[in-house]
Structure formats: structure tokens, C-alpha cells
Write a structure and sequence with these properties.
The structure holds 2 protein chains of 2 kinds. Helices cover 49% and strands 15% of the residues of chain A. Chain A is α/β, with parallel strands linked by helices. In chain A, helix 1 links the parallel strand 1 and strand 2 (27-32). In chain B, helix 1 (7-22) runs antiparallel to helix 2 (26-40) and helix 4 (147-250) packs antiparallel against helix 6. Chain B starts with 6 loop residues before the first helix and ends in a 5-residue tail after the last strand. The mean pLDDT of chain B is 83. Classes of the chains: A alpha/beta, B alpha+beta.
Chain lengths: 179, 457
């Protein structure tokens, strides 16, 4: 289940959004009209994606999303706004580091696509991190084994001076000094 | 001296001077004043000049028996006889030809100066300041003025000077008043223009604010309608499923079957299911239109935009047409013949305002039903043109010259400010373009706007 949080000071917007997003059975939605309450909730539960209005009383969407960034740095952030002024855009991109800026009135399909893409992107990011971690762990393992090998090689160098014939047999040279 | 100069004479002079200063028919009052003095010296002709505000120029304000065109003409201090008198602040007596006088022989060589005349000239002094000059002449056959006459005149001229000064300050006050009235009118015009542009700016701000607020409810209405459509689709499928599978079973209990069938007929379910589709479709179309209007309002206001930017003129006309839709839709059929024009460097909100003014005027000019044609194209120079033509009532010839004047309106009181076109004119002027009008009474009006593609740097 993906955990998605919606924040908009207008209840009807949240209701409409929940109806639209309900088509995705693996999305669990939590919606808040108050950004402060939403933030309090975010400290208790991990969310994959935050979708917030821009203009809200007390805390605006940019500040809210910026705050979620320090709580869940890996989560995706989307702004859904009726206002598209310059300041809103700049703040959303540079401070809140959002994935999409969607304007109201929105297109349902576009919204679902944007969220799906954001979640896929997040999965890819996490997968990337996991793989990078794995590579690093394997590298450490590999280095260890390499070290053991080198140690062994320096202890028994003759073992590694063996001549092999094409058929896999060991060639024993008669000329070898055997004092 | 034929007239005895006593207190009565001076009182009468004073009365005439007062009259000359304040009367409506100033010119004749001044002539009366001058004639009164001339008769006192038994002279034949004369002229009266006042100093202008710069105190360096005289203007002839009255004359008796002098060329008519001389009245109103100006004379610099120092030049000509009157000018000499004003410059030197000395009275002058000339007997015979002026050209033969040593002082003026070089200056005057014309016919007038060659006449045999006896003349006296006095500067009119108040506090050593020359307020005017008076000259009186006598034909030689009528005798000559003497030094004695000149001296007697000197005393008299104090009173004349006072009377002239009164007239002069009266003139100056009046001039000041006129200037002030003119200035006030210009101030009023400027204020009104400012008011108008402020009004437009605040309307724009308001519109943009409202537009953003509308986005919220439109947002969920739009989304809910989509959801509703999909719900209805599900319900309709469900009903169909019932009809297909449950009906045969129900038929076995005719009592229940009839009950359901009756209710179905009562509510006309078939119609409801059909109409639901169009209900949703129409509502969605309505929302789409609201979205478009909101977008246009935002485009039209361009709140933050007061600088020149590259803008699509066709887009501007379209969004303006959308806003003016209410004014136009019942009156005119709009035909667009857009040419291939590039983006234009302009203040889009202001250019839209020009389109708005012309389009609304066009709609108002159409009494019943007509056509508004909008054409665009590229000009020879680096400019574009926009033609807006209506089939309205046209503008009478006498009004055509005035339509760009501030406050000129042909609309009934309270219906037009008379600022729309003057504002449009100043906007186009600001864009280094030009706007022209061509109109035939009873046939329609055509406005042509030229705009440079790029603003000259």
C-alpha cells in the first residue's frame, strides 16, 4: 500500500480528490484541511506522497511541503493550486522540491497519472538506493575475499606457479632443481 | 488746448478707464477712452499701447484713425516711435516727417513716416515702470503741438497711466484666470485618465483574484462530474444486469414483477437513463466554459504585466471577444479573418483594452443585428495591422474628428465616459503605432490599428 496525504483547506476539494483517487486500490489516502494537523500526523506515520494546496490559512503549501521534506526526505511532493503566481512556482520548485505543479481545476486522469509517475519514480529511487547499497556490500565482501586470496598467494607462492596443459593436467618439469 | 482739464475731466477719464478695464466690449471702451484724450488735445488720430507681462513688449490696444490691422500688433521696447518712448521713458514731440527727425531717420523710411504730422508721445509710468505708451497726432493743416502741450500732457498722463494700469492688471487677472481654467481642465483630463487606468488596473486585479477563487469550486465540480459520470455508468450496468438476469425470475411472481414494471413506467426510467448522459455532458460543457472565462479573465488582466512583452495578438483578440461576449452575442455575428502575423512586442493587457473599447463600441453601434469583421495582416514596414469593422450606424462626419478627444461621447449621459477611445488612442501612441477611423453614416465604421512588431529601442 502506498501512503498518500492530501492537504487542502477546502473540504469539498478533498472529497472530490478522494473519490478520484479511490480507483487505485493500493493507494491509502489520508486527507487534512489543516496543514498543522497534517504535519503532526506526518511525524507519526511514513507517507510516500504529499499533495498539497498552495494558498492556505496559517501555513501555505510550500512551507508545509518543505517541512515534510525534513521528515520524509524520500517522499514525493505535488502542489495542486488555483494560484499560479511566480512566487508560488519558485518556492515550490526551489524550496519544496516538488515533483509536479498541478493547477486547479485539474484533470482527473492527469492527476492520477502524475501521482502514479511520482510513486514509480520514488520506487525507482529507492530501488536505486537499495541496489547501490547492495553493490557496496558486495564490494566489501569481494574486497575481503580478494585480501584472503592475496594473503594466501603471498604465503604459498609456488602453488600459483603451476603450469597447466591444455587438457587440465599438471605439467611437471624434469629440469626443476631438486637438491 | 480746447478742453479745460479740470476735476470733472479727470473724473470722466477715470470713469472711461474703469469701463475700458471691465467692459465686455473692451475694444470700443478703450477707443472711447482714447478718443476722450485725443479730443482734449484737439488732435485727429492716436494710439494706445499697453505693456505686456514681459515688460519688454508693447501691444497696441486701441487706435483712432490708424490702420485697423495695427490693433493687436506688438512692438518691442526700443523699436519704432512708441518703442523708443517706452525704452527711454521720455515724452516725445515730433513736428513734420518722422523720417527727417535725427533720432528716427535711420529707422523709418516707409510711407507712413513720410507724412507731415505733428505728434506727441508719452510713456505711461507707474512707479517708474512703463505700463503703456500713448501717442496722439494732428495733421499739419490743423496746427502743430507745442512743447507747452507736451508739458501739460505730462501731468495729465499720470491719470491716464493709472487708468491704463487698472485695465492692464485687469487683463492680466483675466488672462491668469483663463490660464487657470485651461490648466484645471487639463488636470481634470489627466486625473480622469489616471482614474480610468487605475480603474482598469483594479478591475484586472479583482478579476484575477476572483478567477483564482473560482478555480477551487470549479476544480471539485469538474472532478465530481467525472466521478458522477463513472458512477452512473456503473449503476446503469447494474440495472441492465438486473433486467437481464432478475426479470425472468421475477416474472414467475407476477405481483412483484408488475409492481416494479409500473414504477419503472411511472418514473420513465428509460428516459432518465438517457437524459442522465446529456445532463452530465451539458454540465461538463458548462464547467469547461467557466474554465475558459476564468482563463480569459486572467489573460485579460495580466496583473503583473506593465512591461512590453512578446504577445500573440490573435490570442488577445480571442480572449477579449470572450469577455465582451455578453455585449456582442445578441447584436453581431463575428467574422474573423486572421492573417499570418508574428508575435508583437506590446503590453498585452493594454492592447486588449483597445480591442475591448472598439469591439464594445462596434456592438453598441449596431442597432438590431449586424456583423463585426476582424482582420489582421502584416504591413509593408515591420508592422502589423488589425481592422475591426462593424455594420453599425456609422459616425457623422462632424463627430469623426472628435472621437479620440477625451470626454467626447455620443452615448446618452451616464452611458459612456468618453474616455474609451481617447485612452485607446494614447495606448496605441505609447506603442508607437497608429489608429485610424473610417466611417460611413448608415453603413458602418472601420478602425484600423497599426502596431510595430518590435518596439524601437
Amino acid at each position: 500500500m502506498y501512503q498518500i496525504m492530501l492537504v487542502d483547506d477546502e473540504e469539498n476539494i478533498l472529497k472530490a480528490l478522494k473519490r478520484v483517487l479511490a480507483v487505485k486500490k493500493d493507494w491509502n489516502i489520508e486527507a487534512f484541511t489543516c496543514a498543522e494537523e497534517a504535519l503532526a500526523r506526518a511525524t507519526k506515520k511514513t507517507f510516500d506522497l504529499y499533495l498539497s494546496d498552495y494558498r492556505m490559512p496559517k501555513i501555505d503549501g510550500i512551507s508545509f511541503l518543505t517541512a515534510t521534506k525534513s521528515i520524509h526526505p524520500n517522499a514525493m511532493r505535488i502542489v495542486l493550486s488555483g494560484y499560479t503566481d511566480y512566487d508560488a512556482l519558485m518556492g515550490a520548485i526551489n524550496q519544496a522540491e516538488i515533483f509536479r505543479f498541478i493547477t486547479k481545476p485539474w484533470n482527473d486522469e492527469y492527476l492520477i497519472n502524475a501521482i502514479t509517475q511520482a510513486l514509480t519514480y520514488k520506487d525507482t529511487l529507492i530501488e536505486n538506493q537499495r541496489l547501490a547499497d547492495q553493490v557496496r556490500a558486495q564490494q566489501v565482501q569481494l574486497n575481503k575475499q580478494k585480501q584472503i586470496f592475496e594473503d594466501y598467494k603471498s604465503k604459498h607462492p609456488d602453488l600459483f606457479n603451476v603450469e597447466w596443459a591444455a587438457d587440465g593436467s599438471i605439467i611437471i618439469n624434469d629440469d626443476t632443481d631438486t637438491d | 488746448m480746447t478742453v479745460k482739464i479740470n476735476t470733472t475731466w479727470i473724473y470722466n477719464l477715470y470713469r472711461l478707464g474703469q469701463k475700458a478695464a471691465s467692459a465686455h466690449a473692451k475694444e470700443s471702451a478703450r477707443e472711447d477712452f482714447l478718443r476722450y484724450i485725443i479730443s482734449a488735445f484737439n488732435a485727429d488720430s492716436g494710439s494706445l499701447a499697453q505693456s505686456l507681462a514681459d515688460d519688454k513688449t508693447l501691444m497696441i490696444v486701441a487706435g483712432i484713425d490708424i490702420p485697423r490691422q495695427a490693433i493687436g500688433s506688438t512692438i518691442k521696447f526700443g523699436s519704432a516711435v512708441l518703442g523708443w518712448v517706452a525704452e527711454n521713458k521720455k515724452p516725445l514731440l515730433i513736428n513734420g516727417k518722422i523720417s527727417s527727425d535725427s533720432e528716427f531717420s535711420k529707422q523709418f523710411k516707409n510711407k507712413q513716416a513720410n507724412k507731415e504730422k505733428s505728434s506727441m508721445c508719452w510713456p505711461l509710468l507707474i512707479d517708474k515702470q512703463v505700463v503703456g505708451v500713448i501717442s496722439i497726432n494732428k495733421n499739419m493743416d490743423n496746427g502743430q503741438f507745442t512743447q507747452d502741450d507736451l508739458n501739460r500732457g505730462n501731468n495729465l498722463m499720470h491719470f491716464v497711466a493709472l487708468a491704463v494700469e487698472t485695465a492692464r492688471s485687469h487683463d492680466q487677472t483675466e488672462q491668469l484666470l483663463q490660464d487657470q481654467i485651461k490648466l484645471n481642465k487639463r488636470l481634470e483630463e489627466a486625473q480622469n485618465q489616471l482614474l480610468q487606468s487605475e480603474k482598469m488596473a483594479s478591475i484586472g486585479q479583482l478579476a484575477a483574484g476572483v478567477a483564482h477563487e473560482i478555480n477551487n469550486p470549479v476544480g471539485y465540480i469538474n472532478s465530481n462530474l467525472s466521478t458522477l459520470a463513472s458512477y452512473i455508468n456503473s449503476i446503469s450496468k447494474m440495472l441492465q444486469l438486473y433486467a437481464d438476469t432478475a426479470d425472468p425470475v421475477l416474472k414467475q411472481t407476477p405481483e412483484h414483477y408488475k409492481k416494479i414494471k409500473d414504477h419503472k413506467n411511472d418514473i420513465d426510467l428509460e428516459f432518465i437513463m438517457e437524459d442522465l448522459q446529456s445532463l452530465i455532458a451539458e454540465s461538463m460543457e458548462g464547467v469547461t466554459r467557466v474554465k475558459k472565462i476564468v482563463q480569459d479573465l486572467k489573460d485579460f488582466s495580466h496583473v503583473d504585466e506593465s512591461e512590453f512583452n512578446w504577445a500573440d495578438i490573435h490570442g488577445g483578440i480571442d480572449s477579449t471577444l470572450n469577455i465582451a461576449h455578453n455585449e456582442i452575442k445578441y447584436k453581431a455575428n463575428v467574422i474573423k479573418e486572421y492573417g499570418d502575423i508574428p508575435e508583437v512586442e506590446c503590453i498585452a493587457s493594454q492592447i486588449n483594452q483597445v480591442f475591448m473599447n472598439i469591439l464594445v463600441n462596434a456592438a453598441h453601434a449596431i442597432e438590431d443585428q449586424g456583423t463585426i469583421t476582424i482582420k489582421t495582416g502584416r504591413g509593408d514596414d515591420d508592422n502589423i495591422w488589425i481592422i475591426i469593422r462593424d455594420t453599425g450606424s456609422g459616425i457623422p462626419e462632424k463627430n469623426l474628428k472628435r472621437i479620440f478627444d477625451p470626454f467626447f461621447t455620443s452615448k446618452p449621459v451616464g452611458h459612456g465616459t468618453g474616455l474609451g477611445l481617447s485612452l485607446s488612442y494614447s495606448i496605441i501612441e505609447k506603442h508607437k503605432g497608429r489608429i485610424e477611423v473610417d466611417s460611413t453614416l448608415g453603413q458602418g465604421t472601420e478602425f484600423t490599428i497599426w502596431l510595430p512588431i518590435q518596439q524601437p529601442s
